[in-house]
Every structure is written in C-alpha cells, then in structure tokens.
Amino acid sequence: MAGFTLIELLVVITIIGILLGLLLPAVQAAREVARRTQCGNNLHQVGIALQSYNAQFRSFPPGSRMHANQGGLGIGWRVMILPFMEETIVYDLIHPTPNG
User: Is this model's pTM higher than 0.85 or not?
Assistant: First the structure.
C-alpha cells in the first residue's frame, strides 16, 4: 500500500501546527522590535531638527500655535521644524506666514 494512514496524516498536521504556533510569536516579536526601532529613529530625527532650528535661530520654536487673530488656525513647532527634518516639500505646501 503506497498511501498514508489517517494517524500519520494527523501527526504531520499536528507537527506543522506546533511549528506554526512557535513561529508566529517570533515573527510578532521581530515586528515589535522593528516598530520600536523606527519610533526611536523618528524621535532622534525630531531632536536633531530641534537642535538645528536652535542653532540657526538661537532659540527653540515656540511651544504653542502662532496665529494673527484669536480664533484662527496657526502653526506650531512641528511645522516650524519641518525644513530641518528634510520635509521642505510639506513645509512649502503648508506655506506658513510670519505671523502664523
């Protein structure tokens, strides 16, 4: 007889299930490490941009939104550091004015 028995088939399926069960947590852990590394890199870039802004203007960007009138929308420090994060295209799209 050249086929597999039902027991052999169930054993193979069980072994494959156990291996997948061991593999999935390892993949999730690797993804979590990659996310944490990317987040750390993003924070590092924000820090470098703030220091570059400080070096050019001798002060850090304002912590609150700047706007001409009380009810208007303004820009904050995140927008002001965009050119220092190599995001000048986004900064130009926002096109902030001197008074916010």
Answer: no
